[in-house]
Amino acid sequence: MFDLATSFRASAARDPSAIAIVDEGVRLSYRDWLSRIEAVARGLAALGLRPGERIVTALQNRWEAATLHWACQFAGLVITPVNWRMTGDELGFVVENAGARALVTEPVSHAAGDAVDAAGLLRIGVDNAASAGIGFRDLAGDGALPDVSADALSLMLYTSGTTGQPKGVPRRHRTERAAAIAHVAQNLYRAGERTLGVMPLYHTMGVRSLLAMSLIGGCFVCLPRFDPARALGLIERERITNLYLVPTLYHDLLNHPAFAAHDVSSVRKLGFAGASMTDGLLRALDGAFRPDLFVNHYGSSEIYTFAIDQDAVRKPGSAGRAGINQRLRVVRIGPGDPDAQVAQGQEGEIIADAASDEAFEGYWRRPDADARAFRGGWYFTGDTGYLDAEGDLFVTGRVDDMIITGGENVSPVEIESCLSLHPAVSEVAVAGLADERWGRIVAAFVKCRAPVAAETLDAHCIASGLARFKRPRRYVFVTELPKSPVGKLLRRKLVAGDYALDPSCLSGPSTSREPNP
Fold first, then answer.
1. How confident is the model at residue 162, as a pLDDT?
2. Which tens digits make up the pLDDT trace of 8-31?
3. Which of 32, 249, 258, 374 could be bridged to 245 by S-S, CB 3.0 to 4.6 A?
4. pLDDT at residue number 249
């Protein structure tokens, strides 16, 4: 298989005049972008960086970040992109853990970079030079670039670290390219597609969008940070053809007051990943865009694709079948036995074949995490789900998110989808709260679009056929749901009480009810 540098060169030879990247006033063809990428790669080598070394970048989605991603592939460096919002301590952990030789920051992340104290660390600044005085615009060199093997490491992503320190996920050129090819195939992308490059390049979804466009002569339109008004403007002006976002960003896009005033007819393909999408949002998006294809992609940083459903509206909540490079099983929770498959319709832990062309081979310097994740050639995802009568996979949550109430197992996703269909509900999240009698009770945290009583929402659950033991026993009306920078719901913050109440939502006197037997 091609390494990624060879892959990009092949694309530039095939579509030299096609516009490859757009960022405000920057519009580069594949021919011109290749020239800049190679110049930056030579500049990195001129600084003394050698193949296999790690370079940490704390950048927003700008053309310089995308250029550095590709330049590292040409120079044989392992790009290690991180959230530009990181604190100095968080950034310092990644720099030390990765054994990084260089750190790239921009004005919004310079302060965190300045707080990192690592001997021999090169500092590179975008827009203005960082402490070491090396500016991105000054990167240049004239030496020969190395031959890079498809087996060389390309990228190291760091997991979100919601349950502890983040873990490094090193990935090879061949696995990155296989994942990009699968992304093109599974989303039915055509030559010349144009995508909104807003999912961060420190996230697997952002990287996949970047690489996939390069394979088909497509255009990556940068949006440094998500802003629904700017996103709508770019969709209209740049004639974006596909969107690949987390559900939260779709929600904000669709509910922005300016949505109706913008022409979004160029968007023919929608894809989402990173979290489940509620039935209400799914239907609203389908009605607003009327896409030719609506894809639910289920995967992870470690193994890009687990499952794909190319008609998400047909069966809301379904993640579909295993991707083209994957096999899946649902096994009993707890034993860690890949052969302990559960019956059809029974909930268990989802596991994926670790031999996938898209799979990583183990966490960076974390044999303890490898021992938990890999069993008998299978990767244990930590997600719960079940297979329905037609063999379609439904992801119901995380093993750690499962609510055990009165001896019954309850997953949040089904309840969230049910409540999302009530017209007064804008967003909803379900979590388990400690209770002396029941162990945990099901609590629904609701961001409303109109005042509503808890009793009204309870009646809605009954009318929808939700099992009695799954109905929320407490409703909490909040101003916002806590989320990570990429839009993932942070249930742990709800459990910890880290939210603000919204009394304007409540139209009745009660926010809780006694549990039903």
1. 47
2. 999 999 999 999 999 999 999 999
3. 249
4. 92
Say what the pTM is: 0.84
Pairing of strands 293-298, 269-272: parallel
- Helix ranges (DSSP H) in 47-83: 63-75
Quick check: 112 and 87 in contact, CB under 8 A? yes
Q: How far apart are the first and last CA of the chain?
A: 59
Is the torsion defined by CA of 281, 283, 285, 287 positive or negative?
A: negative
pLDDT of residue 381: 97
The DSSP call for residue 497 is T
Answer yes or no: are the C-beta atoms of 241 and 195 closer than 8 Å: yes
Cβ burial, residue 278 (10 Å; 0-12/13-18/19+)? buried
Strands 439-448 and 474-477: parallel
Q: Which pLDDT score, from 0 to 100, does residue 132 have?
A: 64
Instruction: Give the CATH number, domain containing residue 372.
Output: 2.30.38.10
Domain of 388 in residue numbering reads as 327-392
Residue 361 in domain: yes
Task: Say yes or no: 383 and 411 in one domain.
Answer: no
pLDDT given at position 161: 54
Please enumerate in sequence order all residues whose Cβ is within 8 A of that of 208, keeping only pairs 6 or more positions apart, or say none: 179, 180, 183, 244, 304
Domain count, the chain: 2
The H or E element that residue 397 is part of is: strand 393-398
Count of H helices and E strands in the chain?
Answer: 14, 26
Last residue of a domain, one of 359, 375, 392: 392
Q: How far apart are CA 379 and CA 418, in angstroms?
A: 31
Report the pLDDT value the prediction gives residue 509, as an integer from 0 to 100: 43
Over its C-alpha atoms, the chain yields an Rg (Å, rounded) of 23
Angle 293-61-69 (CA atoms, 0-180°, nearest 5)?
95
Whether 423 and 362 share a structural domain: no
78-111 per-position pLDDT tens digit:
999 999 999 999 999 999 999 999 999 999 999 9
What are the tokens at 80?
């290690």
The number of beta carbons lying within 10 Å of the beta carbon of residue 238 is 17
- pLDDT score for 466: 87
Strand partners, 221: 22, 196
| DSSP structural state of residue 120 | T
Please give the DSSP secondary-structure letter assigned to residue 356.
Answer: -
In 3D space, the residue among 306, 434, 432 whose CA is nearest the CA of residue 358 turns out to be 306
Instruction: Tell me which residues of the chain have a pLDDT lower than 50.
Output: 162-163, 509-517
Q: Which of 369, 392, 415 is the last residue of a domain?
A: 392
**Do residues 444 and 413 make contact, with C-beta atoms less than 8 angstroms apart?**
no
Alpha-carbon gap, residue 80 to 491, rounded angstroms:
27
Q: Are 449 and 420 in contact (CB under 8 A)?
A: no
Tokens describing residue 242: 């596909």
